[in-house]
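Justification of resources, computational component.

The compute hours requested in this renewal are based largely on the per-chain cost of generating structure records like the one below. Each record pairs the submitted sequence with a full structure-token output. That output is archived, and it is also reused by downstream analysis tasks.
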Amino acid sequence: MKPKQNRWLTRRGFGVHSPWAYDIIVNVINEKRPYYAYGDICSFLEEAPKHLPQYPQSRNELLFRLVNRFNPDLILEIGTGAGVSAGYLASVSNRSRVVTVDETHPDVPEVKKYLELFPSISYITGNIADIAGKILEGDNTPGFIHIAHTSLWRQTAERIIEFATPKMVVVVEDIKEKEKREWWRDIIKDDRVGVTFRMNKLGILFFDLKMIKQNYIL
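The structure output for this chain reads:
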């Protein structure tokens, strides 16, 4: 019972000595107040392809809050699914540009039609690893990256970490899966990775090595 109690306390900020980490836990991860855009986004959800994968609303709202907190100019999503997460990412600010990259599949026209509701989203299909690599090597490095509905998550994550900057935030979905869980245990020990947060099915990586390295389990 003790580990569960400690996790419960940490999720509420108790025992967290870093003011920065406390702010992220209490005012971003645990924030419960509705944001102005949630209602607008929900009005678009009926247009999303129902048969393609998407994450629960709570996870998409967390993505929204993270983007709102760190205010990146360029957001990169790997694995589009139904496009719902991309919609949340794009709804935070008019100044952020979202590029969501997906493998070529028969439902691309349907996803594209849905994403056209969001003018700041660029939807690119093809070889995910190659496309992501070109974006990472470009002049405008993404400040926020969402590794979502893709089987190429490992190749992409390794490429991302190679080009990571101190201000970059990377969200990795579905880390409860066995292979990702094992990868997560290794990656949080990587010298290129700084503070990390792990929730039940989601992990967040930061790369500012000036901060004390710490893995928060929430």
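The beta strands are 74-78, 97-102, 121-125, 144-147, 169-173, 196-198, 202-206, 215-217. Residues 1-5 have pLDDT under 50 and may be disordered.
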